[in-house]
Amino acid sequence: MIAHLKGSVFRKTTESVIIDANGIGYEVFVPLSTFYNLPDEAGSASLHIYTHVREDILALFGFHTKLEKNIFLMLISVSGIGPKLALNILSGMGPQELLEAIARGDSLRLQAIPGVGKKTAERIALELKDRALKVLGQEKVPRPHIPEGKDRHLIDDALSALLNLGYSAKSANPALEKARSTVKEMTLEGLIRETLRILA
Fold it and tell me: 0.85 cut: is pTM over it?
């Protein structure tokens, strides 16, 4: 069973990447959080791998971080959630934000992810709440500070976008706070652009 794969990026899309390892091309399905951390074609990549084996399928799922893989394994342990849906859920929300939503039992937030219905969201929140709280404690993921007032939803949306791009809450949150005081135009696009400039 393949658990780790290192090689050069032969080709990549938002759904999968082909890793050339010693002349053999492995197609690996990845979430968006991993895709945004992949180098350009011919660049070196290292992925944590989950090998999905059935009678008619052998598929590889790859993750930039061990945390992403652990969340993926948690998701597929829930009845009715297969690897493709679990990957879709990871792509619909950043890893830290997803963990916090599960830990809060926020099934409505989970339903906002395409492909996740009410019953599935409720199962995730119910079955994984304790495990998500445990992982959050182990990872020491900071809870982002979101100011009250008219900018609250704007900051929330910008943070969500940054987490989906693969940034951690620990790095994104202070950059967002700084961007709020320096951005010329307080719009979602302007705030994200300024935050990315600070992070760079």
Answer: no
